[in-house]
C-alpha cells in the first residue's frame, strides 16, 4: 500500500556493479597469471606469493578488526558519553531510530577543522567520530550537522569499511608482491639465477611486473568504487533526514575548509588534513559523465577518494526534486473520519 | 539489509510499523492498576519533516483533519504543532484523560496520512503522557521502525528515573511489545505533549 518515494538510483547501482565486476576480473586475472607463472617454472616464486598472501590477508584482517581503534587514535579522538555530549548523542539517537540501526559509539576528535568519519568492522563495533570543529566551532546549523552525521551513519549501514577492505585486499597483496619480489631480487638474485635460466627472465621479475600492473589497475578501481560509495552515502543520508539541501549546504561549508563567514581568525585555522566527510581538494570543472575514465577529468580527481563537490551537489539536487514530487490524488479522505 | 544492498551501498528507508500502537488503551489500564499512572490525555507524533512544499502541504492537511473534530465532545483540543531544536516536528493532540481511544485514533490518523503519501519512513516516534498522584511524569514512547514501546520518566533537569522506567517495563511486559535493547531508549527531553 505504501508507495515509496525512495527509489534506488539505478545509474549509480550500475556503475558500482561494473566497478566491482572489473575489480573481480582483475583479481581472477591476477590469480590466473600467478598460477600460470608458477606452473610454468615451479616453485621458486611460490614462497614469495604465499608470504605475500599471508601478510596481505593478515594485515587486511587486522586493519579491519582494529579499524575503529586505529582511526580513533590517529585522530586523537575520545569516545564520549551522552552526559558529555548531549546534543551530539541526541542527533545520533534520533537518526538511528529513524533508520532502525544499532547506535554506534560516538567520539569527538579535538580538531578545529569541521569534519567527521565513521569506521568499525561491524554495526556493533562501529564508531562515529566528529571533530570539535564540526560540533562546536563551525557555523553549521543543527540541520547541517545532522546531514553530516546521517552521511556517516549511512557509511556504517552500507558496511563500507568491510566492502573497501575486501576491495583493497587485492591491491595490498599485489603491492606486497612487488616489494617482496624487489627485495628478493636485490638480496637473493644470485642464488636463484641458476634455477630459472631457461628464458633468461627470472620468474620473480615476471611476478613483479604482473603485480605492478595489477596494483595500478586495482588502485584506480578502488578509488572509483570509493567515490561511488560516497555518493551512495550522500544519497542515503539525504533520504534519511529528508533534507538534501541541508546536506548540500553542509558539504559546501565543510569543503571550503572553513566556514564562509569565519568565526575565528583565519590565521588560526589549521592546515587542511585528514578530511573524511569532505576531502580538501580543488573543484575541477567538467567531467560530468559518470564513468570511471572520463577524459576531461584532472589527475587529482582520478585519484581522489571522494567525488567532486559539484557531482555531490548535483545528486542532492536530484534527490530534492524526487522528494518534492506532488502526490497523485493528494491527501484523500483521511482514515476514521 | 540484504547482501546485495550492502554490496551496492543502498539502504531501503524503513517503513513504520503502525498496528502495535493500538495496544496502548488496554496497556494503560494495566499500568493504572499496577503502578497508579493515569493518562493525561495528551500525546504527540514526532516525525522528520521533508523539505519542500509537498510535505508541508501534507502537514497542514493532517492538522486540518485533526482539527475538524476539535471542540466537539470527544474531539479534544486543536492540535499544536511544534518544531524541536533537532528539526523534528511534533503534532500534539490533547484529549480528556479518559479519552485514550480517541487520542490513539488521532495519532494513528497522522501516521496513515504520512504513510499514504509515501512519507512513512519519516515517522520517528509517538509519545503518550501519564502522571501518577505524586505528579511524577512518565511517557510511553512508541518506536515506529521497531514497533516497540519504552518508558521514559524524566526528572528535573536532564535526569531520568531509571528505576521507575524498569518498573514500568516489567509491569507492561505482558501488554506491550517492550523494546529490549536498552540503548534504543533514547531520552526525549522536553518533548511536546508530556
Largest interface: A-B, 63 and 55 residues
**How large a portion of the residues of chain A is in β-strands, by DSSP E?**
under 5%
Radius of gyration of chain B: 17 Å
| Helix and strand pattern of chain A | HHHEHEEEHHHHHHH
Order of helices and strands of chain B: HHEHEEHEEEH
The helix count of chain B comes to 5
- The geometry of chain A reads as elongated
Oligomer kind: heterodimer
Account of the protein in words:
The complex is a heterodimer of chains A (337) and B (194). With 337 residues, chain A is mainly alpha-helical. Chain A has one domain (11-282, 297-320). Chain A contains eleven helices and four strands, in the order H-H-H-E-H-E-E-E-H-H-H-H-H-H-H. In chain A, strands 1-2-4-3 form a four-stranded mixed beta sheet, with helices on both faces. In chain A, a hairpin with a 7-residue loop joins strand 3 and strand 4 (127-131). In chain A, helix 2 (46-65) packs antiparallel against helix 7, helix 8 packs parallel to helix 11 (309-323) and helix 9 (244-255) packs antiparallel against helix 11 (309-323). The longest helix of chain A has 39 residues, at 203-241. Chain A starts with 9 loop residues before the first helix and ends in a 14-residue tail after the last helix. By secondary structure, chain B is α+β, with helices and mostly antiparallel strands. Chain B has one domain (20-184). In chain B, 31% of the residues lie in helices and 22% in strands. Chain B contains five helices and six strands. In chain B, strands 2-3-1-4-5-6 form a six-stranded antiparallel beta sheet. In chain B, a hairpin with a 5-residue loop joins strand 4 (123-131) and strand 5. In chain B, helix 3 (53-67) runs antiparallel to helix 4. Chain B is globular. The mean pLDDT of chain B is 88.
Amino acid at each position: 500500500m505504501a508507495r515509496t518515494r525512495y527509489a534506488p538510483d539505478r545509474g549509480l547501482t550500475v556503475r558500482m556493479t561494473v566497478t566491482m565486476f572489473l575489480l573481480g576480473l582483475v583479481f581472477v586475472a591476477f590469480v590466473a597469471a600467478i598460477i600460470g607463472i608458477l606452473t610454468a617454472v615451479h616453485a621458486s616464486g611460490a614462497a614469495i606469493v604465499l608470504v605475500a598472501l599471508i601478510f596481505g590477508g593478515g594485515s587486511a584482517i587486522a586493519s579491519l578488526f582494529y579499524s575503529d581503534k586505529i582511526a580513533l587514535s590517529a585522530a586523537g579522538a575520545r569516545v564520549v558519553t551522552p552526559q558529555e555530549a548531549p546534543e551530539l548523542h541526541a542527533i545520533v539517537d534520533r537518526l538511528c531510530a529513524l533508520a532502525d540501526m544499532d547506535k554506534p559509539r560516538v567520539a569527538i576528535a579535538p580538531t578545529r577543522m569541521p569534519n567527521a568519519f565513521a569506521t568499525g568492522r561491524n554495526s556493533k563495533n562501529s564508531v562515529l567520530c566528529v571533530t570539535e570543529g564540526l560540533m562546536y566551532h563551525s557555523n553549521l546549523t543543527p540541520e547541517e550537522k545532522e546531514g553530516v552525521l546521517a552521511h556517516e551513519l549511512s557509511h556504517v549501514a552500507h558496511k563500507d569499511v568491510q566492502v573497501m577492505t575486501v576491495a583493497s585486499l587485492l591491491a595490498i597483496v599485489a603491492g606486497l608482491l612487488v616489494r617482496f619480489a624487489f627485495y628478493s631480487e636485490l638480496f637473493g638474485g644470485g642464488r636463484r639465477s641458476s634455477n630459472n635460466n631457461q628464458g633468461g627472465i627470472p620468474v620473480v621479475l615476471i611476478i613483479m611486473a604482473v603485480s605492478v600492473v595489477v596494483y595500478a589497475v586495482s588502485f584506480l578501481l578502488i578509488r572509483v568504487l570509493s567515490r561511488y560509495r560516497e555518493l551512495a552515502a550522500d544519497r542515503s543520508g539525504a533520504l534519511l533526514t529528508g533534507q538534501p539541501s541541508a546536506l548540500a549546504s553542509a558539504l559546501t561549508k565543510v569543503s571550503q575548509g572553513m566556514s564562509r563567514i569565519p568565526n575565528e581568525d583565519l590565521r588560526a585555522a589549521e592546515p587542511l588534513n585528514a578530511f573524511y566527510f569532505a576531502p580538501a581538494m580543488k573543484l575541477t570543472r567538467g567531467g560530468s559523465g559518470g564513468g570511471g575514465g572520463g577524459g576531461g577529468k584532472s589527475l587529482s580527481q582520478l585519484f581522489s577518494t571522494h567525488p567532486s563537490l559539484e557531482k555531490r551537489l548535483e545528486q542532492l539536487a536530484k534527490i530534492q526534486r524526487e522528494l518534492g514530487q506532488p502526490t497523485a490524488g493528494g491527501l484523500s479522505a483521511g482514515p476514521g473520519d | 539489509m540484504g547482501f546485495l544492498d550492502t554490496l551496492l551501498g543502498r539502504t531501503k528507508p524503513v517503513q513504520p510499523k503502525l498496528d502495535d500502537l493500538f495496544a496502548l488503551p488496554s496497556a494503560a489500564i494495566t499500568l493504572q492498576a499496577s503502578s497508579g499512572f493515569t493518562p493525561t490525555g495528551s500525546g504527540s507524533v514526532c516525525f522528520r519533516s521533508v523539505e519542500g512544499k509537498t510535505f508541508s502541504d501534507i502537514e497542514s492537511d493532517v492538522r486540518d483533519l485533526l482539527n475538524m473534530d476539535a471542540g466537539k465532545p470527544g474531539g479534544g483540543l486543536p492540535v499544536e504543532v511544534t518544531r524541536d531544536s533537532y528539526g523534528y516536528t511534533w503534532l500534539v493532540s490533547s484529549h480528556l484523560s479518559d479519552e485514550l481511544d480517541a487520542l490513539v485514533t488521532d495519532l494513528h490518523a497522522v501516521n496513515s496520512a504520512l504513510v499514504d503519501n509515501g512519507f512513512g519512513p519519516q515517522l520517528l516516534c509517538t509519545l503518550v503522557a501519564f502522571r501518577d498522584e505524586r505528579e511524577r511524569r512518565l511517557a510511553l514512547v512508541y518506536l515506529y521502525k521497531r514497533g516497540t514501546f519504552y518508558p521514559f520518566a524524566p526528572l528535573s533537569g536532564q535526569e531520568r528515573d531509571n528505576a521507575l522506567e524498569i518498573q514500568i517495563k516489567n509491569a507492561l511486559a505482558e501488554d506491550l511489545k517492550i523494546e529490549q535493547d536498552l540503548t534504543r531508549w533514547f531520552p526525549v527531553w522536553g518533548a511536546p505533549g508530556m
